[in-house]
Amino acid sequence: MMIETQEDQSLLLQSKQPCRLYLYGQNPQYVSTLKNNFAGMKIPLVVGEMGIEVSSTDTVNEGLSLVLTNYIHAIVFELSTDPVRGLHFREKIREDEAKRALPILFIMPENYWCDVDLLGKVYEDPYSFALPDSVDFKTLFTKLKTSINFEMLHIYKNHFDRNMHLAHHLQQTMLPPWVYLGKSYEFSTFYLPHNVVGGDLVEWFPLDDERVLFIFGDISGHDTYSALAMSTVHSFVSHLIEVDKEKARRPCLIANEIHAYFCRHFAGIVSLAALIGYFDFRSNYLCYLNAGYENLICFDSLTGKTDLLNPDYGETTGLTMGSSNGLSLPMAQ
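Structure (tokenized):
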């Protein structure tokens, strides 16, 4: 089976497949001895203990074909008489992007260790290593274990980075449009998470040309779980408003619905601190519920003055949504 992407590799590494080694040597006795040493052994890796399966070929070209068309965890290549052949073999392997981190252990005669240029060429590749042909099997085994674990971590990191990049893109698509121009009001938002994704909540729900419900909040934590929880809030509140738009006029009702939802599904995992407000620009009316934040500052763009948000317009509580099951948020508004 040909593995074309590192994501495929990562999935395979998580399976119960054996640890596959490719062994090439110009000395048949050396190859036979190593195969016998590996027989029946298990190697402890980051994905768990794995049995060892060793493959070898008579020619370098046969080995190249085997490595490029199968998943191999590591290569042991004996450089007894022709180091150029070994470096050319590595060059061909590295042309395959999925093999860029494949560990290659070059077994070299002691007289090669005086060749600084050769050693420099071996180590210019971060996943290539050199060991003397006099190395004992225990040291060789330990080096294999370390290099394979390093490769696995490299693959997992790339897999994780790609998934986080996708999660970031998906989270951005769930945010409200960065600018909204209505007949009676307009708003704009810009969200840059602390990490790739985050649990910050910025939601605007236009109810009509003159009324809007907004939620500014922060879900505890900075991991993917809080980002996922953020996405559920948007869907949940959208459904509430679709079923009963008049409920949006009572932020306390929305807050208690979210609170109950979090207690059911995220109890003890995440909670939400948020300001939920309802604006009616036609009648210049504002009401809000502030759950978990300090009092907020109101900025007057006409006069340039700032002041604390008038508590007469809403309720403030130190209780965050989802933090205490069985307790209710303030209802008076």
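Residues 19 and 52 are 5 Å apart (CA to CA). The helical segments are 6-13, 28-38, 60-69, 83-94, 116-123, 137-174, 224-243, 251-265.
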